[in-house]
Specification:
Chain A is of the alpha/beta class. Chain A has 17 helices and eight strands. In chain B, helix 2 packs across helix 9 and helix 7 packs across helix 10. The chains are: A alpha/beta, B alpha/beta. Chain A: GO terms for molecular function: nucleotidyltransferase activity; sulfurtransferase activity; tRNA binding.
């Protein structure tokens, strides 16, 4: 592949070709077992080595980043799909080890029932939820099942960014681990003295579940109706997917905040993150790539989103789940069976996977590039006070002035075409003109904001570039407006 | 159903809808809007100061034709003078026809034209010779890599010959979007860090460059050329099907169909990328052989030519340019015609 910086290998010598991996090959790691799966570019692993490799990657990602403190409450976002199921399984196994190396946080699981947005009937949704509950009971963590409709009952405070607690230096992490270990080894006068306020004993997952579980109440019919109306009013599948993601994120964060979780883990795999990166580029979210695809995402302030599966490719996850019988449930998503050209997300997914088949290093190259992105505004003005944040995605606004020579400026440009071109105006164009890019000429040339457009314009000017483009496809109904008004 | 009246002059029938905004305009008003927007880009971005001598990279294709035409219209207002510089890469069956178009344009517009050829500048290496040299390595030829680097060098040389102070090229928004996608797919962090803006200010003695059309979408460039009845050369390069850019281009067309603003959204993303300081390119120095702008001891053009001359064309395309001896054979400076390893005359 024409990859920048790729090593040039001398043309292969004319000798005999190396033997293809066949039945006679051994695992490349232990050199003994029979290989069952080929990882990366031709490394054949046997079952045990593969499991060790997989588990090691998971622990290494958590250990390297040192963000999860011992005793912390971590919410696992589980969709039923293979990646998040694998993550939940890894956490389960990691906690149950009887060694000093076992994981040390307190997990909970949340499942969001998105059936209303996907157009599923109540009967189907109930069936899916029942299947989910079976698995959740096997896993044994505290679990919460919420319906997406509950997003309407969220308080407006979810849209504000809470003050960030300092994440602590390396010293703080080590100190926390040491103190936790000391407590573990302290003579146990009953387990109650051991627990810090708010933690649960991870060794007793069979503690009575009723108190901490959030049972799924049957969703209120009016809210289901409102949700379907909201999603039906969105004109493109791209905007629908983005809207769904935003609502889901806010809902999960709300659950985390209400029940005292300080971290949320999502099961985004390496492949998915590479696709997500390319999709974010196409959606105009180039400024926020580090938050969207990095290991930790702390833009919401008090709750940090963490992605521990980001080193695992979809192939590894699929094989692991198959070889070690990790349970997962299939649920149709909003883009299931949608044609390939229907949304930016689908197009990117098809493109990346197709390119990957032709050039097997595509996903890893994109992933490596994503590691070089940093969370900073481009012009390095990180020293000043934090600027305004987008209402929907909580990232710092990346909007230029309306008449600048940039992609944003040129889309809000308002030049009178009857007169010879005049020098650009000093003041940025009024927000209502920027909201209606396709509007006819002569909307309000300096006459001030139109009264009719005011609520929508007011919302739009608080959004980042990417969210503004999405909002163009959304008919902001009363539900949406009520939600976003502060 | 008859076309609606033009949204601007309200007199003529609309002839098109602008891809950007869906506004219906007649041909004259669209051309006026296009020119106004290019003027705005140049003025707001402070790209071409008054009194600049601007070398337009003219290839005979639609982008450079439109660029030259628009700049010629705007030249009195901007206070600049124009020079056309055409580069002859030595691609038989393609470049000769394109150059004929450039010569016609220069005559029609009465602009001075200078043609610089690879064969003269780079010791007899034409693109056809390069393609033959790289063809045997078993992988894709990557002659587009050579062409891109050498053409920029040639343009710089041509611009200096005519005494220009700025170089402009006709890259449009689609080109910028494709470049961004390509750089991510290939993991080219260096180019990601360097690109995405309005051009380069010209460090280390290199001439400042800019791309006045880079916020205009390709569709609009084509429409402008159509309405102004411009004569340009529209065939694609012989080697184009092998380029990796083809993948990015296909993807971009699909994205544009799904969401019309995708091209400008990608340009916006490119403007706002935040890369780690370690990924930023090294501060500019000078090439030890030719003195041009370089971030390493040898500039990329000298490195590529070095590899070609040694019969190892991929020497400079790789990590760390391993094996590249900085004290290579002397006498590879421009102006000295060297006999290349293969024939100089393409055997087509």
């Amino acid at each position: 592949m024409c990859q920048a910086g790729e090593e040039y290998a001398e043309p292969p010598a004319e000798g005999p070709r190396p033997p293809r991996p066949g039945g006679e090959q051994k695992c490349v790691k232990c050199k003994e077992g029979l290989p069952v799966v080929v990882i990366r570019a031709g490394d054949a692993f046997c079952r045990d080595c593969f499991k060790a490799f997989y588990v090691h990657k998971f622990r290494a990602v958590l250990g390297k980043n040192r963000l999860i403190f011992p005793g912390e409450k971590v919410l696992l976002a589980w969709s039923g799909g293979p990646s998040s199921s694998s993550m939940v399984w890894q956490v389960l196994e990691g906690l149950s080890r009887d060694s000093a190396k076992r994981l040390r946080f307190v997990p909970g699981v949340v499942y969001v029932d998105e059936g209303a947005a996907c157009g599923q009937s109540l009967g189907d949704r109930a069936k899916t939820v029942a299947e989910m509950k079976l698995i959740l009971q096997t896993v044994g963590f505290h679990w919460h099942i919420v319906a997406l409709e509950e997003v309407f009952s969220l308080p407006p405070s979810v849209l504000r960014c809470f003050a960030q607690e300092p994440s602590g230096t390396k010293g703080a992490y080590k100190a926390a681990v040491d103190s936790f270990l000391q407590q573990q080894h302290a003579p146990a006068q009953g387990k109650e003295g051991l627990s810090q306020p708010g933690t649960q004993d991870p060794q007793n997952p069979s503690a009575p579940p009723s108190a901490a579980q959030t049972e799924a109440q049957p969703p209120i019919a009016a809210q289901t109706e409102a949700l379907s109306r909201l999603f039906n009013s969105v004109k493109t599948l791209t905007a629908k997917e983005e809207l769904l993601q935003t609502l889901r994120t806010h809902l999960i964060l709300h659950v985390a905040r209400t029940h005292g979780y300080s971290k949320v883990m999502t099961g985004d795999s390496c492949t998915r993150l590479a696709i997500k990166l390319m999709t974010s580029l196409a959606l105009g979210r180039g400024a926020f790539l580090a938050w969207d695809t990095g290991f930790s995402d702390e833009r919401h302030g008090d709750v940090v989103v963490v992605r521990p599966m980001r080193d695992h490719t979809l192939k590894e996850i699929a094989f692991y789940n198959r070889l070690f019988a990790v349970p997962s449930v299939f649920t149709p998503a909003i883009d299931t069976k949608a044609p390939e050209k229907s949304s930016i997300h689908r197009l990117m997914e098809a493109f990346v996977l197709r390119l990957q088949a032709q050039f097997p290093s595509t996903v890893s190259t994109v992933y490596r590039t994503s590691e070089k992105l940093v969370k900073a505004p481009r012009d390095g003005s990180a020293g000043g006070p934090p600027g305004p944040r987008c209402l929907l995605c909580m990232c710092a606004l990346d909007i230029d002035t309306a008449d600048s020579a940039t992609a944003f400026g040129v889309q809000t440009l308002h030049l009178s075409q009857m007169q010879p071109p005049t020098p650009p105006a000093e003041a940025p164009t009024t927000p209502c003109c920027s909201a209606r890019v396709g509007g006819a000429q002569g909307c309000c040339q300096g006459a001030g904001p139109c009264g009719r457009q005011d609520p929508r314009a007011h919302v739009i000017e608080q959004l980042c570039y990417g969210c503004r483009v999405n909002m163009k496809d959304v008919g902001l109904g009363p539900a949406g407006a009520a939600r976003v008004s502060d | 159903m008859p076309a609606p009246p033009c949204a601007s002059c309200h007199k003529a029938r609309a002839a098109l809808r602008r891809p950007r905004s869906g506004q219906a305009l007649c041909g004259t008003c669209f051309c006026a809007a296009f020119e106004a927007e290019v003027l705005h880009t140049v003025v707001a971005g402070r790209l071409l100061p008054r009194g600049a001598v601007v070398a337009v990279g003219a290839s005979g294709g639609k982008d450079s034709t439109v660029l030259a035409h628009v700049l010629r219209e705007l030249a009195p207002r901007l206070g600049i003078s124009l020079q056309l510089v055409a580069v002859d890469e030595g691609i038989g069956g393609y470049r000769d026809a394109a150059l004929a178009a450039v010569r016609r344009q220069a005559a029609r517009w009465e602009l001075p034209l200078t043609v610089v050829a690879y064969a003269d500048l780079f010791g007899g290496w034409t693109m056809d010779a390069v393609a033959r040299s790289t063809a045997g390595s078993g992988r894709s030829r990557s002659c587009c890599t050579f062409c891109g680097v050498l053409r920029r060098r040639a343009l710089e040389e041509g611009a200096r010959l005519v005494g220009a102070t700025h170089i402009v090229t006709g890259h449009n928004a689609d080109d910028m979007a494709e470049t961004l996608l390509m750089n991510f797919l290939r993991g080219d962090v260096g180019r990601l860090a360097r690109g995405g803006g309005l051009g380069s200010p010209g460090e280390g003695g290199a001439l400042p460059r800019c791309r006045p059309l880079h916020l205009a979408s390709q569709k609009e460039v084509v429409l402008y050329a159509h309405f102004r009845r411009l004569d340009y050369f529209s065939e694609e390069c012989v080697y184009a099907p092998e380029a990796f850019r083809g993948h990015a281009r296909d993807l971009l067309k699909l994205l544009e169909a799904a969401r019309p603003s995708a091209v400008l959204d990608l340009v916006h993303s490119a403007e706002r990328l935040a890369l780690a300081p370690s990924a930023r390119p090294a501060p500019a120095g000078a090439c030890s052989r030719c003195g041009a702008l370089a971030s390493r001891a040898l500039c990329q053009a000298c490195a590529l030519l070095d590899g070609l001359d040694r019969g190892r064309p991929r020497l400079a395309i790789g990590k760390g340019r391993r094996g590249l001896d900085e004290m290579g054979p002397p006498g590879l400076h421009r102006g000295q015609v060297q006999t290349p390893a293969s024939e100089a005359v393409p055997s087509f």
